[in-house]
Amino acid sequence: MKTVAVEKANIRQGSLILINRKHPICEKLEPELVPVDSGYPEILLEQKAAAMYAQLIQSLQAGGQIVPVSGYRSLQEQEKIYAESMRENGEDFTRKFVAYPNHSEHQSGLAIDVGENRAEIDFIRPDFPYTGICQAFRQRAAQFGFIERYPKGKEAITGIAHEPWHFRYVGCPHAELMQREQLTLEEYTEYLKDFPYGGKHLHFDAGRHTAEIYYVRESALSSGTIPIPDDTPCEVSGNNVDGFVVTVWRSKK
């Protein structure tokens, strides 16, 4: 067994950070951004998220049918969008569909709004129906680490109205687990606490590999390190709440 050194600030970093009205984004977070598509150089995502989005679109051959509408936003951009929506659409609409500045997933570089390719596309609420190529995208998204972040019927949990167009990168196999269990990121963050380092771990069969997942509470870290298995590929993500999620990948023999 070996360890990975972490700092308290690392809780606010990683693909599994929870961002909502109760848990703001870290203002010092500086994701490595790249364009999601050469045809849309102004729309950026975090590097890994962008790569997986491109693979998802390519797997569906959907480049001409699905278009990126909004990716990474700076704090200033989110403030402008929020203020304009308040002015043009009113408080009720804005609170339902536009996150308050520093509480928006778009500031993380891990969220993307997508739309069906039409002559006119609404920037705030692009059309992305549950039919055709859009539904095919939705059904396959989890295989590439994306979830539909604000599903219908979960508004009281997420604090945001149903948004069929908004997808969030959380990585694999977490997206598939969330899809299987029909969990929002809020619910999944709590669910993972049932699998602490010192107890039963969560396992997921990913074909040629298996994923072992466990949670480490930040307050339990006496030495500022997280235990991980020797010589095993792993990822550590903060949850932006109170701890870390460790994902260990093992090859099947």
TrEMBL record:
Transmembrane segments: none annotated. SUPFAM superfamilies: Hedgehog/DD-peptidase (SSF55166). Residues 44-171 form the D-alanyl-D-alanine carboxypeptidase-like core domain. This is M15 family metallopeptidase. It holds the Pfam family VanY. It comes from the Bacteria. InterPro entries: DD-CPase-like, VanY-like_core_dom, Zn_M74/Hedgehog-like. It comes from Brevibacillus ruminantium.
